[in-house]
Design brief:
The protein is α+β, with helices and mostly antiparallel strands. It has eight helices and twelve strands.
Length: 317
């Protein structure tokens, strides 16, 4: 999910709230005034343990390498888009209300084995591994992230889609009480995204459940999100609750909101600008540098064949 205003969100790293300070704030706010005045140290509020924590860190897959340094977790975790909880980049301060247990994913549509499955039961059946991936935002910035998860193809194989299924449609939760951004009626909630079957079954396409060697943080889209590294980041839907196999191309969130600027495909291409800014270069978040943007975000060798014969179509926006 990506902010379309330019440059207003950029801040120097020195202004970022230290992670330790943020983690302590709830304990401080929850302490009684009397105990603070009396000089009694407030107790840290206990976090409910994540039942999947024992699965991390997962085995690292050496086949996925990078041409640059990883983005530090502190920087990544404090610079995110999650419109359900606000438009600010420091959305990590607003996601505590995201309830990630219990969490059920519905798999339905044109499949032989439709089902609803809890996230922890799903994790027990999937081959978790860590992969290093580039992430390129449509706002012309980038990061590099050690995701943990499993290929989307593994879930697709288990669902056994019918031959008539041409696309995979993804949908996130809809709960304005939990996510105040969903009270903004001008947005087409819930967030929806889609891929062709060829894109969905490509080995790069990943369902992510962890990052930096631990369960996925809420601001990253816990407890399960998509990552499609050759596309702009808004295609990588967060906090998925439904995966449907359909025969018609899904209309995604940003396409529904502003179809003149956002389409279905959103493949990274430095030569195809966004209608309001260039995509030729990207700011590397956490550094003071810009880099040339790579076609398909550097994954052309693995994915260009998907689009063979489609050169006349608008497969970039």
């Amino acid at each position: 999910m990506h902010l379309i205003r330019r440059k207003g969100w950029e801040i120097p790293e020195r202004e970022a709230t230290p992670e330790a300070l943020f983690l302590n704030r709830r304990a401080v706010l929850g302490a009684g005034v009397g105990s603070i005045l009396a000089g009694v140290a407030p107790a840290m509020a206990a976090e409910e343990p994540d039942p999947s924590a024992g699965l991390y860190p997962a085995k690292h897959n050496d086949a996925f390498t990078l041409d640059r340094e990883l983005t530090p977790e502190k920087i990544n975790s404090q610079y995110n888009n999650f419109y359900e909880f606000g438009t600010q980049k420091k959305v990590f301060t607003a996601v505590d209300s995201l309830k990630i247990r219990p969490w059920t994913i519905k798999v339905d549509g044109m499949v032989e084995k439709a089902r609803e499955i809890g996230i922890d039961d799903l994790l027990k059946t999937m081959p978790l591994e860590e992969r290093l991936y580039r992430h390129r935002c449509v706002e012309a910035w980038s990061m590099t992230i050690p995701w943990t998860g499993f290929p989307l193809k593994a879930l697709i194989d288990a669902a056994r889609p019918l031959s008539s299924a041409k696309y995979v449609r993804f949908e996130t939760f809809l709960d304005p009480k939990m996510a105040p951004g969903q009270k903004q009626s001008w947005y087409p909630w819930p967030y929806v995204e889609g891929l062709t079957m060829a894109e969905a079954t490509n080995d790069l396409t990943m369902l992510v459940t962890g990052a930096y060697g631990k369960p996925l943080a809420r601001q990253f889209g816990a407890p399960i999100r998509l990552h499609v590294p050759w596309k702009y980041g808004f295609k990588s839907i967060k906090s998925i609750t439904r995966i449907s196999f359909v025969d018609e191309q899904p209309k995604n969130f940003w396409q529904s909101l502003q179809s003149s600027e956002y389409g279905f495909w959103a493949n990274v291409n430095p030569e195809v600008p966004h209608p309001r800014w260039s995509q030729a270069t990207e700011e590397v978040i956490g550094t003071s540098t810009r880099r040339p943007t790579l076609l398909y975000n550097g994954y052309a060798e693995q994915v260009a064949g998907i689009y063979k014969g489609m050169e006349g179509q608008k497969i970039y926006f």
